[in-house]
Design a protein that fits this description.
alpha+beta
């Protein structure tokens, strides 16, 4: 059924030879859903360039002393970081994770990603499509896929070399830290893991504090345990 809808839209655009009448949120949804259903290798819309999935190496850890960690991150990045407020809505999908990130400033990002649920540095493959109308896109995806849950957080972002350091205060969970080593094309996964492990040591993050899964998973687990 979904494939028929995609083909119908494709034929419409092909004969009109333009994307200007198709809302950007709809194009975003089409490509994300195509990615989820593994049709992107053979399906292309005229005038729209699909970007291959990006990758980074990530870790997530529970933080007991956010002030001390922020001081170390500020020293390494030589900055005080940037405060970002994020409201993430997760949707049901057959593989990976699909979320709409509302940046609370009229803009947002539709993000699909795949990442193993293990502790320690791990490879994450992802694709992102920006949106200027998060509420409308949330409504469409909610109707199409159903909502899995929501995550609200305040993020303090530091940039250290090729790594994004996130100090997060997550509603309902507390304080956490994420490292995202943005992989260069020539780098191997092992090299990215080494960058993450070296930065963990510099920040004083212990292996015992590492956690698995996404914040959404931790929130759902907490609800199941109560």
């Amino acid at each position: 059924m979904c494939v028929c809808i995609y083909i119908y839209i494709y034929i419409y655009i092909l004969f009109n030879n333009t994307l200007k009448f198709v809302p950007q949120p709809l194009i975003s949804v089409i490509f994300i859903l195509l990615n989820l259903n593994q049709y992107t290798d053979s399906f292309h819309l005229p005038g729209y360039q699909y970007r291959a999935m990006l990758s980074n190496v990530e870790i997530k850890a529970k933080v007991t002393d956010p002030v001390q960690l922020a001081e170390k991150a500020a020293q390494l990045s030589q900055s005080q970081g940037t405060i970002i407020r994020q409201y993430d809505t997760f949707f049901n999908c057959s593989r990976g994770r699909l979320k709409l990130r509302d940046l609370q400033n009229g803009s947002g990002q539709l993000i699909f990603y795949e990442r193993p649920d293990t502790d320690g540095p791990k490879l994450c493959r992802y694709s992102i499509s920006p949106t200027s109308d998060p509420p409308s896109l949330r409504a469409v995806l909610s109707d199409a896929l159903g909502v899995k849950g929501e995550v609200r957080k305040e993020r303090r972002l530091f940039l250290i070399g090729q790594t994004r350091v996130h100090l997060d205060t997550v509603e309902g969970l507390g304080h956490y830290m994420e490292l995202e080593v943005v992989m260069r094309p020539e780098q191997t996964v092992e090299e990215g893991q080494q960058v993450a492990e070296d930065l963990m040591e510099q920040l004083g993050v212990s292996k015992e504090s590492l956690v698995t899964g996404a914040y959404m998973d931790l929130l759902l687990k907490g609800q199941a345990d109560t």
